[in-house]
Amino acid sequence: MGLLDGQFVPALDGVAYGLLLFVVAAGLSLAFGTAGVLNLAHGTLYAAGAYTGAELSDGTWGGLLLGLLVGTAVACAAGVLLSVATAPLAHRGHLAQALLTFGLSLIGGTLLIEFFGADQVPVRVPEALDSSVTLLGHRYPAYRLCFIVMAVALAAIGTWVLTRTRAGAAIRASADDSEMLAATGVNPRLVHTGVLAAAGALAGAAGVLGAPIIGPGPGTAETVLMLSLVVVVLGGLRNLWAIAGAAIVVGQVQTLGVSLVPGWAPYLLFGAMAVVLVVRSRRATATGTAGSQVGARTGAADPIGWLREQLRLFVAPFAAPLAQLGRRVGSNTAAVPGAVRRGLPPAVLVVALAALPWIVDAYALSLVGYALALGLLAVSVTVVTGYAGLPTLGQTAPFAVGAYTTAVIADAGWTVGPVQIVVAAFAAGLFCLVTGPAVIRARGTTVLMITLAVGELTVVAIDQLKSITGGTDGLVGFPGPQLLPGSAELIEEMEVYHYALVVAVIAVAVTMLMLRSPAGRLLIGVHGAEERMRASGHPVDRYLLLAYVGAGALAGVGGSLMAHVRQYISPADVGFEIAAFALLAAVIGGTVSVLGALFGAALIVLTRDWVAASWPGYGPLLLGVLFVLTVYLLPRGLAGLRGTPRERAGGGTGGDADGVAGNGTGPGGGTDDGDGTDDGAGGADGLNSKAEAVR
């Protein structure tokens, strides 16, 4: 009883905190589950309401009411604008929406700081609520009790509106069958706008009422968004009471969990989110993949032999394509002139990059080195998103593994650069081998959410393992790399830059070689015609897992370079923002162009660190504008500005900015199922257009 009595106040705080998250998550669920918009600007709408309410609060009931009305109206208007902004993206999938709304959140966050300042804003509540009441022998803030009552009432009213009114029926019909709704005389577009307006209003009202609990300040929008995403994943999209229950669980973890098990609490939220997503994705694919599982037998009799057999089955599909690649390279001498022509632009680029130390200053050179590291991360995103068809927001996880592995082994005396690269790639690849099975079975938005959870769990682990990673303080002062054992440490900016350039060129060359090989074409076939590949007996899951592990190893190499180029690593260098930047870089390139992804990374670093230096404080605004322009102006990235010859002739598509493969059809209407045969006259053009984009 003593323990329960001592934890009464934290538990009640968890209820209040959870119900606040419920109000926010209800709006996020409404936007995503009904309007189909993955709104990563939802936390910014909360912050807009919170700032507005705090600015208008003067300690009176009139000030509270005015703040509630204005804050709700501002966020509601932002929801309407969001509906207009996302309308052109209706047929481009959730990835384009996520990038657009993330860019809008960067712009909105900068504007809020411009208007309200960067400091924490105090919130004044009416005197009657600015007191404590006695509850079961404990003193507790009256405002929080009042908020609990209002949130429960909101859940009841919201459920009644959605289930018992004509407006709720129209909302449900819009989500289930918008064409049928239009046939009844109701404009689905109007319903879509109303849903996003209502979702914005919920976020704004939550911001005003929740400001005394989660006050407006730096990082508020990101915190609220992440926790709301967890709530929506755990509670689902349609049932408000389930969302409320999930929100209370999250609130308890954030308050009571931290009080009782502080060492485990940070892992619980995103861990639970990942588990729920994996279970749901496996249920969704269980029926479709039940007939395609190979070798599902136990190894109780001979576990060592069983493991060897599994390894042989895993590697066997790639042995023949790689052997064929070797024969083709050795015998096809007629292709050399064409290969030289294709290799000339990259060669000129490498020469220009090598000459930079004699052209630019040390700061600019360090930015180019960092762009190379971020570029490898973007290329790994290109492999996973553009070729494997798994849009990812968590590729910073293996990137972080590679970076911290390099720093830790450098401190331990393993300072030979090539050794560090190999160890970092191996560690990152092993990490992806462990997490890969949870990713490759999912598709679409579920992949985004699972990889986001993996990335956030990695950041949490970095924060917690302070003895190894330095926690939030990061790691600094580790030795630089050596080219060979016993050689001098690379300290000078030029030396480190050239080291990073050589490693990046080799890594990119190997990646392009693999993507152009028959193994890479198999991966393209999986993306373009997965069901046919499965039906023809291809081990699709092994292909995807190998691509995911290889991309993770590449990200680990990028992390290793980043550690030496920056000479400092912190969780901020491998967090959600960097994951979004890497995804944007891949989208700028077209999600199918390796060199395009490198260019996208360079453009992001140029915007964030060089252009923004001339405009202090407006870096996020510039990046937000870059996100928005990329989504609207480059729907298929730079690679889509000029269709490939096959694509122009045949009309097939290899993918768009969302990383979703086209149907791979040409004039003949045929499709390439990835087994080396063309089922129609123009079928291979759509899939092959991807391979030609690797330039």
TrEMBL record:
Query: Which regions span the lipid bilayer?
Result: 15-41, 61-86, 98-118, 142-162, 190-214, 226-250, 257-279, 343-360, 367-390, 421-440, 496-515, 543-566, 578-606, 618-635
- Listed Pfam families: BPD_transp_2
Report the membrane topology from the UniProt record.
Answer: Multi-pass membrane protein
Indicate yes or no for the key word Nucleotide-binding: no
**What are the protein's GO molecular function terms?**
branched-chain amino acid transmembrane transporter activity
Q: Where is this region: Disordered?
A: 644-695
Gly residues composition bias: which ranges?
A: 650-671
> What's the domain of life for this entry?
Bacteria
Q: Where in the cell is it found?
A: Cell membrane
The Gene Ontology CC terms held by the record are:
plasma membrane
Keywords of the record:
Cell membrane, Membrane, Transmembrane, Transmembrane helix
Looking up InterPro entries in the UniProt record yields:
ABC_transp_permease, LivM-like
| Protein name, per record | ABC transporter permease
